[in-house]
Amino acid sequence: MTVLVRSLYGADLPCLVKMLNDEYSDSYEFEAFSENSLHLWLQGGKLEILVAEEDNQIIGSAAYHNGYWGEEIVWVTVGENPNRKQIENDLVNEAQKRVKRDAVFTAVDAHSPKINEWIERGYKQEGGLYHMVSRLDSVMSLPGVPSDTILRSLRPEEEKDFVETVNAGFETERVKLGTIQLWKTESPPFNEEWVQVAEANRRIVSIVAAKPDTNHNKLFGTSRGYLGPATTLNEYRGKSLASALTVRAMNFLFEKKMDSVALFTSERNTPSVKLLQKIGFKVGHHWKFMRKHL
Ligand SMILES: CC(C)(COP(=O)(O)OP(=O)(O)OC[C@H]1O[C@@H](n2cnc3c(N)ncnc32)[C@H](O)[C@@H]1OP(=O)(O)O)[C@@H](O)C(=O)NCCC(=O)NCCS
């Protein structure tokens, strides 16, 4: 049988949605695909979906995305088929043709047998991502910080300082003027009070932002908070500022009746992973990044 790999047509969407939901329904905190969610994602212009067709039937799909974290193969899947591996390889090869720079990655569940299939395609494990979670069942005491440091919430007039400190701490443009307004719109009742800051020498030197985990709460009926971004200016690191602000943010969420909190961090971010584990966060899920240099 001849298998044709081609770009998605609008008429393929219902079949694709079913295939993706069947394939990924067991995955961690799975958010079901819908025609509308895929349509919106495609409209962003950074996602390209490929399908594998046999006898006028969609039997597989791959997606290429050019996003904040780099160029990514978001999924590759073929339903039950004796030639599954070959068709998936064809889909990956076609997706790789979309790559504009010199590398492409995909995220795979740590310990998944799929990792070996990516290695066979020339991909190497390069770091990974943790989803870290903690219960909120009491007010916790704060780790000590230097006596000249004030811990408090962000003030509405400090948006510019917020943007400068976050971007300096991450050494990249992580937030912009307008980000706080966007969070207010996306995640009510978020406001400046949800952003914990440390002030030293009359400047904001460390920040931990908290929000409701809006999407998750809507989908799963939970009361979970979300932390991030979090950062400390380089010269103020190692003084427990981020630890203290994280605990403050967790206590704040607890007082807002949230019963758990989650965030994402890179497995290679030793200071972040160390401080989170010390506070009581556990790894909720672990993805490995598989990367190929083209
Ligand atoms: C992660 C970050 C916020 C930590 O800020 P901080 O104010 O220095 O954090 P703390 O002092 O509260 O805790 C850091 C812990 O990591 C430890 N640490 C720091 N560098 C380390 C390293 N290279 N190896 C091992 N441990 C390290 C510190 O000793 C401290 O642990 P301790 O309290 O047991 O001594 C800061 O490094 C940062 O801004 N990084 C860049 C942005 C970022 O990655 N943000 C987090 C994204 S999830």
The helix-and-strand class reads alpha+beta
Q: Gyration radius, to the nearest Å? A: 22 Å
**Order of strands across the widest beta sheet?**
5-12-6-11-10-9-8-7
The CATH topology of the largest domain corresponds to Aminopeptidase
Give an overview in words.
The chain is α+β, with helices and mostly antiparallel strands and 294 residues long. The protein folds into 2 domains: 4-101, Gcn5-related N-acetyltransferase (GNAT) (Aminopeptidase); 138-258, Gcn5-related N-acetyltransferase (GNAT) (Aminopeptidase, 3-Layer(aba) Sandwich). The protein contains 9 helices and 12 strands. The protein has helices at residues 13-24, 35-43, 84-96, 114-120, 159-170, 179-186, 214-220, 241-255, 270-279; strands at 4-7, 47-54, 57-67, 70-78, 103-109, 124-135, 150-153, 195-200, 203-212, 224-232, 260-266, 282-293. It has an 8-stranded mixed sheet with strand order 5-12-6-11-10-9-8-7, with helices on both faces. A hairpin with a 2-residue loop joins strand 2 and strand 3 (57-67). It is elongated. The two termini are 30 Å apart. The model has no long low-confidence stretch (mean pLDDT 96). It binds coenzyme A (COA). Coenzyme A binds next to helix 5, strand 10, helix 8 and helix 9.
Describe the secondary structure blueprint for this structure.
Layout (H helix, E strand, L loop, with lengths): L3 E4 L5 H12 L10 H9 L3 E8 L2 E11 L2 E9 L5 H13 L6 E7 L4 H7 L3 E12 L14 E4 L5 H12 L8 H8 L8 E6 L2 E10 L1 H7 L3 E9 L8 H15 L4 E7 L3 H10 L2 E12 L1
Parallel strand pairs: 10-11
Antiparallel strand pairs: 1-2, 2-3, 3-4, 5-12, 6-11, 6-12, 7-8, 8-9, 9-10
The structure holds coenzyme A.
The site of coenzyme A (COA) has 22 residues, from helix 5, strand 10, helix 8 and helix 9.
